[in-house]
C-alpha cells in the first residue's frame, strides 16, 4: 500500500517578526547601562563624589551608590530595576552598593554581544544562573574565617568600607567606633543577629567629625524645658517616660464654654491648678525626678503652669520626645512607658546616675549616662562643621555598621581591591572550557564581565587599567589569589597584608543580586504601558 504523504503545514513556513522584541530588549539594556556608567566613576577609594541637587533646592554630596541612585529621577522602567538592585544590596549587606550596579551594567553589556550573536535569552539566563552559583562557591573557598574576639580584623574591614567615602580621613576614628557600637548590642542569646535600630545616631551641627563619640546611654538633641527655672542636672535620677499630658483636660468634642461670671472664671482656674497639682503630687510621690514627655498632637503636653509646678518639685523635664523614639528609650532605660497618671508606679521607672544638659556648638543636648540595668543599645553622637559633611558622615557610619553586622552574621573575610573579581574571572574562564556548547560561551562572557571592578578601580585611581588588569591576571594565574590593586601606592600588592578586607557576605550578595537583576531584564521582551 502506498504511503499517504502528510499535508504540508503552512505554519512552519510563516515568518515571525522578532524585531520589536529585540528593540525593546536593546533599549532596556542600554538604559540600565547608562545608570551603571553614571555610578561607576564613584567606585573605590579614589572614586569621584556626586553632587546631587534636589527639586527643593537641597544639595547632597555623596559617594554612596545607594544614595546616588535613590536620588536620581529615573523614568525608564528597566533602569529603575538597577535602582531597586542597589536598594536590595543596601538592605542585604549595607555596603557594595556601587559594586553591584557596576557588575550588573558590565553583565548587560556582555549580554548585548551574546544576543547579537543570535543566542537565545533563556540560554543566556540559565548560564548566568549556573555561573553565579559557581561564583559563590569560589568566593567561599577564598574566604578567611574570623572570630568576633578578633577586634583588629573587624576594624580593618570597617575602615576599608570607610576609605571610599568623603570622610575617609576620619576612618581611624569611625571604624573602631562602629565596631564597638555593634559589639555592644550583640545579644549572647542570638549571637548571629544584630538589629541596627538598637544603635541610634544623633547628628549635631558644630565641631568636626573628630568630635564624634559613642555614648553608653541616651542623647537627646534638645534642651531641658526650664522656662520656670527647673533643674538642668540631676544625679541618681529616677526617670519616667510618660505618654499623657500634664495640662488641663479638654473636651473630647469641639465646643466652647461661655463664662459670664468672675467667680466662675476663678473657679475654673482654681480647678485647673488643683488638677495639675494633683498630677504632680502623684509623680513626686514615686520619687521620680526626671520626666520624658511624649509629643502631643491634640493639646500641649505641658503648659507654663505645669512647668512652674514641676520646677518647684525639682523635676527635670524633657518635652516633645518623638513617638517613634519611645521604644528605643524604654529599651535603653529598661523601664515602661506610662500612658495614664493612674498607672504611675515606681516599678515603671528607669534609673540612671546622671542626667545633665550639655552645651554643644550653638545648641544644647541632654545626656543620660550610668543607666542601671541598661538594655543592649548604644547611641553615637555625630558632629560635623556643616550639614553636607554631617549627612555624609552619618551615611558612611551606617555603611561601616552594616559591614560589621555582616561579619557578625557570616563570619568570613575576603580580600578587597579587585582580588576576588579577578580570581572569579580566572576560575570561571577555566570552567567555561569544560562546558559544552552555548553554555561555555555564556559563562566565558560572565567571567569577562567581572573584570569591570578591577578595571574601574584602576581607571578611577588614574592608573593604566589595561596594564594593571593584565598584570593582575598574570599574578593570579601564578596562584597568588589575594593579589589586588593597591590604589594608595598605585601598584599591585598582596591586599590581605595591606589590610584591605571586606565581609564575604558583601561579595556573595553582590554576585547573586546582580545576576538576578540581569536575568530578569533579559526575560523582558515587551513593555506594556497602562494609562
Automatic annotation (TrEMBL):
CDD domains: TCP1_delta. Gene3D superfamilies: GroEL, GroEL-like equatorial domain, TCP-1-like chaperonin intermediate domain. One of its GO terms (molecular function) is unfolded protein binding. It comes from the Eukaryota. It is found in: Cytoplasm. Keywords: ATP-binding, Chaperone, Cytoplasm, Nucleotide-binding. GO terms for cellular component: cytoplasm. PROSITE patterns: TCP1_1, TCP1_3. Its main location: cytoplasm. It holds the Pfam family Cpn60_TCP1. PANTHER family: CHAPERONIN. Molecular chaperone; assists the folding of proteins upon ATP hydrolysis. Known to play a role, in vitro, in the folding of actin and tubulin. Belongs to the TCP-1 chaperonin family. NCBIfam families: chap_CCT_delta (TIGR02342), thermosome_alpha (NF041082), thermosome_beta (NF041083). This is T-complex protein 1 subunit delta.
Amino acid at each position: 500500500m502506498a504511503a499517504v504523504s502528510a499535508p504540508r503545514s503552512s505554519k512552519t513556513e510563516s515568518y515571525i517578526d522578532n524585531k520589536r522584541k529585540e528593540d525593546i530588549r536593546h533599549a532596556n539594556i542600554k538604559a540600565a547601562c547608562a545608570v551603571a556608567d553614571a555610578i561607576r566613576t564613584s567606585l573605590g577609594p579614589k572614586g569621584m563624589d556626586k553632587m546631587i541637587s534636589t527639586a527643593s533646592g537641597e544639595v547632597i554630596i555623596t559617594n554612596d551608590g545607594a544614595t546616588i541612585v535613590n536620588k536620581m529621577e529615573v523614568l525608564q522602567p528597566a533602569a529603575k530595576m538597577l535602582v531597586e538592585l542597589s536598594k536590595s544590596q543596601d538592605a542585604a549587606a549595607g555596603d557594595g552598593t556601587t559594586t553591584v550596579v557596576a557588575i550588573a551594567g558590565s553583565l548587560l553589556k556582555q549580554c548585548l554581544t551574546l544576543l547579537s550573536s543570535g543566542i537565545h535569552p533563556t540560554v543566556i539566563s540559565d548560564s548566568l544562573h549556573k555561573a553565579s552559583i559557581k561564583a559563590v562557591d569560589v568566593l567561599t573557598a577564598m574566604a578567611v574565617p574570623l572570630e568576633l574576639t578578633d577586634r583588629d580584623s573587624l576594624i580593618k574591614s570597617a575602615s576599608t568600607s570607610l576609605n571610599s567615602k568623603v570622610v575617609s580621613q576620619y576612618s581611624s576614628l569611625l571604624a573602631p567606633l562602629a565596631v564597638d557600637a555593634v559589639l555592644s548590642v550583640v545579644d549572647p542569646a542570638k549571637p548571629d543577629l544584630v538589629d541596627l535600630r538598637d544603635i541610634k545616631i544623633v547628628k549635631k551641627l558644630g565641631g568636626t567629625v573628630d568630635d564624634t563619640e559613642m555614648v553608653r546611654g541616651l542623647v537627646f538633641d534638645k534642651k531641658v524645658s526650664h522656662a520656670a527655672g527647673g533643674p538642668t542636672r540631676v544625679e541618681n535620677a529616677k526617670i519616667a517616660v510618660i505618654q499623657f499630658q500634664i495640662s488641663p483636660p479638654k473636651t473630647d468634642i469641639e465646643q466652647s464654654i461661655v463664662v459670664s461670671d468672675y467667680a466662675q472664671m476663678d473657679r475654673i482656674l482654681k480647678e485647673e491648678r488643683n488638677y495639675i497639682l494633683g498630677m504632680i503630687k502623684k509623680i513626686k510621690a514615686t520619687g521620680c525626678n526626671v520626666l520624658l514627655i511624649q509629643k502631643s498632637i491634640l493639646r500641649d503636653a505641658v503648659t507654663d503652669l505645669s512647668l512652674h509646678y514641676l520646677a518647684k518639685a525639682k523635676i527635670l523635664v524633657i518635652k516633645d520626645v518623638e513617638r517613634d523614639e519611645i521604644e528605643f528609650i524604654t529599651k535603653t532605660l529598661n523601664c515602661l512607658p506610662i500612658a495614664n497618671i493612674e498607672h504611675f508606679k515606681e516599678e515603671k521607672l528607669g534609673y540612671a546616675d546622671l542626667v545633665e544638659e550639655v552645651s554643644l556648638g550653638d545648641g544644647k543636648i541632654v545626656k543620660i549616662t550610668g543607666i542601671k540595668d541598661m538594655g543592649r543599645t548604644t547611641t553615637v553622637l555625630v558632629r560635623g562643621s556643616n550639614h553636607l559633611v554631617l549627612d555624609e558622615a552619618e551615611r558612611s557610619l551606617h555603611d561601616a555598621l552594616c559591614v560589621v553586622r555582616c561579619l557578625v552574621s557570616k563570619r568570613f573575610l575576603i580580600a578587597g581591591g579587585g582580588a576576588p573579581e579577578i580570581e572569579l574571572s580566572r576560575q570561571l574562564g577555566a570552567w567555561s572550557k569544560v562546558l559544552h556548547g552555548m553554555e561555555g560561551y555564556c559563562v566565558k562572557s560572565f567571567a569577562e564581565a567581572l573584570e569591570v571592578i578591577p578595571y574601574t578601580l584602576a581607571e578611577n585611581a588614574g592608573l593604566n587599567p589595561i596594564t594593571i588588569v593584565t598584570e593582575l591576571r598574570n599574578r593570579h594565574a601564578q596562584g597568588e589569589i589575594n593579589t589586588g590593586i593597591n590604589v594608595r601606592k598605585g601598584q599591585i600588592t598582596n591586599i590581605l597584608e595591606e589590610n584591605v578586607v571586606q565581609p564575604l557576605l558583601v561579595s556573595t550578595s553582590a554576585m547573586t543580586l546582580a545576576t538576578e537583576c540581569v536575568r530578569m531584564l533579559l526575560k523582558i521582551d515587551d513593555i506594556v504601558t497602562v494609562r
